[in-house]
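go over whats below:
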Amino acid sequence: MCVFLYLFGAKLVRAGAFSPDDAGRRIRRRLLGWGLAIGVPLNLLPLVPIGHPAFQLVAGLDRYIFAIILAVGYIGLVALFLEKGWLPWLQGRLEDIGKTALSCYMLQNVLGCALFYGWGLGLGRFEVGSLGTVAAWAAISAALALFAHLWLKHFPTGPFEMVWRRLSALAEPGRRT
């Protein structure tokens, strides 16, 4: 699936889906329309009761097919938000996270472990349900955004990105940091 998604992304880039011209906007609008119009109903199908015959049809497809279709709609939706300049504060926080992506990825795992494993709060021992899962996601996301924003006030990039850059420079003969 990863190879398919990579190749699909490369195809979108080559087709000009992310270019700022009218052709790129048309492609992104199609991604938005088709992705959400088809992806949302398909992703709701697993909510059909297990005994229903329609459930047998969708078992397993929701993760590997339906989620990809919905992701295409999300690509179009994010592009629309960026084009229109909606929620500039949120865009700024997402840019901060992008500049510290490796560090945020590492911190996300540490925070998730601290919330759910026994050495932390141990929430994994309890059935937190969908609402609890969304609340944990929102809390971790807010913590990452706050970390990235505060860190970037003092440094040009994240801590792991800085270490990565220094280690990469050491591997190149004759290059200094």
Notes: DSSP finds eight helices and no strands in the chain.
